[in-house]
Design a protein that fits this description.
The protein is an alpha+beta fold. It is built from eight helices and 15 strands. A seven-stranded antiparallel sheet has the order 5-7-1-4-3-2-6. It has a three-stranded mixed sheet with strand order 8-9-10.
């Protein structure tokens, strides 16, 4: 709004107001008297421009966006810790600490003999599985393995996600167990990346929630069970002891996955072949499928498009041309079930 109000522009305006009968050249008394004021005014206009941008959700910085969201009762999601399953040859003390790569874990709950829930001490998602090393000596401990990620940790909500939630709150009002209310409440829960709500799916008063985890993958049984417990505990369904209103019988299920086998004819550049490009091809397909899966909760069905696959593979170094692409043996786009995400299957090229 005030982009033209630069130091040079302001100074020239001030000098133009001084009669030409006076010496206004650089270094003159008048010039030297006006220059500092012009500099300060330019700073004021810069700050005014920032204030204008901070007053709109579209252009506000993250801190300004947080304040605007608070006006509508929207608070950024906090960062959370990953919960994993550890397997040991003996029972270990609750509170025992272990390390794997750059992360430390602490035993928080016993599941069965030698099997424990461990919580990562750092927030955010953790992807590595493998051998755990005890930080302090534990007598009799011979094997310690991190075998499964039960609940993915998440980073603090980013600016894009928070801004999207703000606008969603304007489009639909969350109230008393309506669809918007369920989406808002469920998306706040740990390791939830999206949800589809099916009202009256088995008659009046019944609701089905299908969820995807925060990595946009199939959620673990632990995530499904803890979400069910928070929304509508199985042992007291419909009684309003969870988030769901009294009279709502809610069933929580995880999203399914559909494997997509890809067969295509690739013409390689000189010196290249499938084996040399296999890792790059798989990474390219995985990135495309991840993009699709992130939009699962806002689309009726996901559609894997032949044109997208061919275009992306054609951009890889070593690929000269591509054609005759089949998805699960069909030469056409592939539409998956509405409650399913896509996974990479076999690739032949």
């Amino acid at each position: 709004m005030f982009e033209n109000m630069t130091y040079e522009y302001i100074l020239q305006n001030m000098l133009d107001r001084v009669p030409n009968a006076f010496d206004k050249r650089e270094g003159s008394i008048i010039y030297n008297a006006l220059a500092p004021s012009a500099s300060e005014l330019a700073e004021v206009y810069i700050m005014l421009n920032i204030l204008v941008e901070e007053s709109y959700v579209d252009t506000a910085s993250y801190s300004g966006l947080v304040k605007k969201c608070k006006e509508r009762g929207i608070i950024p999601y906090d960062a959370t810790n990953t919960i994993v399953k550890g397997k040991f040859n003996i029972d270990v003390p609750i509170g025992a600490r272990f390390s794997l790569d750059e992360y430390n874990y602490v035993a928080i709950e016993k599941i069965a003999t030698g099997i424990y829930k461990l919580q990562c001490e750092d927030t955010g998602p953790i992807l590595n599985l493998g051998t755990l090393i005890p930080i302090e000596y534990i007598e009799g401990l011979e094997t310690a393995e991190l075998t499964e990620i039960l609940v993915n940790g998440e980073y603090e909500e980013d600016e894009v996600s928070l801004r999207k939630r703000y606008y969603n709150s304007l489009e639909s009002e969350a109230y008393g167990g309506n669809i918007a209310d369920y989406k808002e409440k469920v998306n706040k829960l740990p390791d939830i990346g999206g949800v589809k709500v099916y009202p009256v799916w088995k008659g009046g008063g019944t609701t089905k929630l299908v969820v995807i985890n925060s990595n946009f993958d199939v959620p673990s049984e632990t995530v499904i069970n803890q979400t069910q417990e928070k929304i509508d505990p199985m042992q007291n369904q419909g009684k309003g002891l969870g988030i769901a209103p009294i009279g709502h019988t809610v069933t929580v299920a995880g999203v399914d996955s559909t494997s997509i086998n890809i067969a295509t004819d690739i013409t390689y550049q000189d010196g290249w072949n499938f084996e040399e490009l296999k890792e790059s091809i798989e990474k390219c397909i995985d990135e495309y499928f991840k993009e699709l899966n992130t939009s699962w909760d806002t689309n009726e069905n996901l559609i894997v498009r032949v044109s997208q696959i061919e275009t992306r593979l054609l951009n890889l170094e070593g690929v000269l041309d591509i054609g005759n692409t089949l998805l699960n043996n069909v030469a056409a786009n592939f539409t998956v079930d509405k409650d399913s995400i896509v996974k990479r299957g076999e690739i032949s090229a």
